[in-house]
Amino acid sequence: MQSDYDDIIDRTAATAKAWLGGFEERPIPPEVPIGDVRSGLGDRLPERGSEATEVLERLTVAVEPGLMGIQSSRFYGWVMGGTYPVALGADWLVSAWDQNAGMRDATPGVVGAEELAGEWLLDLLGLPSTADVGFVTGATTANMVGLIAARTAVLRSAGWDVNRDGLAGGPRIRFIAGAERHTSVDLAARYAGLGLPQTVPADDQGRIRVDLLRETLAAGEGPAIVALQAGNLHSGAFDDFAGAIAVAHEADAWVHVDGAFGLWAGAAPRLRHLTEGYASADSWATDAHKTLNVPYDCGIAIVADPVAMNAAFSIHAAYLPRPAEGFDPYEKVPEMSRRARGVPVWATLAWLGRQGVDDLVQRLADSAAALARGLAELPGVSILNDVVFTQVCMALEDDDRIAPLAAALRADGSIFASPSRWRDRDVLRFSVSNWATDQVAVARTIEAVRAALAEIS
Ligand SMILES: *Cc1c(COP(=O)(O)O)cnc(C)c1O
Prior knowledge:
This protein is 42% helix and 12% strand. It is of the alpha/beta class. A hairpin with a 2-residue loop joins strand 10 and strand 11. Helix 4 runs antiparallel to helix 12. The longest helix is centred in the C-terminal third of the chain and has 34 residues, at 343-376. The radius of gyration is 23 Å and the shape is globular. The termini are far apart. Pyridoxal-5'-phosphate is lined by residues 79, 138-140, 182, 184, 231, 233, 258, 260-261, 287, 299.
């Protein structure tokens, strides 16, 4: 059996090394459309199998031209991190160990690492040490965990047991969020049965207007949930947590914070002011596959009251005995069986240490600021947002030139940024989320944009 794995592991390691070492030469965007990938893989299910080595060879040859260089230091698309070497190593071990991370007593090896990762995260982010942490696939699911815990708790306070009686016929929950919330909050609310939020207008950077939040809360009554945001997708802006949470708690609302990338500002002393007051919220969602640069997928759901998290997600059966102490991991998240995706988080935090996480987050923000300064000097370019964190939104004098600029950059292939629309303008959006982005990458990025602008003029 061991030799079955040996050859595969050696070959796979060589393939991975070649991919990881290739970002200087290869263009960042995929070079072939999906149809080519599919036909390269063999469109139809084979009647008979093939050698494992042949299958992996075909996989590499067909798939690699269709890969996006997300791990490049010059990739700024959407909000996506790369992969630290230590995180990749830990992630491979997670697959090799193949533990089901649902139960403490069954798989204490990986659950121990995940529990420590959770405790270290709370410490780093300045969140209450008494909060509970669940590892999920991403911030969308982490938002869902927060909103389902919220829904269960606010209904319970209103005398309604949603676990027993369901949502239908119960008190209507007022779900309130800012106009510039991330769309995943709406999706999470849909899963939680909350419907679309009542929307509170945002200010010029996308922050919820606390005065209008107060009015919205005062205009109704009954159980309420407020979703706030740490890190606006376009501007990087942070809601005024101290103000908004005080207003929401006065109205007995549960406060959830979507901080998929922004929560990490809490781990950098010079940026921590952005998150001031967020520790008094009731739940938080973040990602490790963005800012912390662990491989996909890894999101983190945090709930201040462990009993509220447990009330929403726990189930028991004769074959699932309660652990000797604490709650089992499967009692905090939607999945029962799952991979130990928190182990790469432990490894990355152990490798970086508190100082290393500070350096990482600060470097991302410093690179974004340098990028914004350099881009602003190019002819016709303006930066629309106050660059407070990792996001840069650039506009041109003429909105119609953004699409050709994005096309020219894609053809050049040396950088990648996402076109978008923000505050009624066409923009090119840069998210600095990769650990490898440094001053050299930033300088090359500015040169690539300069060249593309010259080409389309
Ligand atoms: C990326 C993102 C999400 C969704 O996270 P996934 O990991 O893709 O599920 C939610 N909110 C914000 C602000 C984001 O940037």
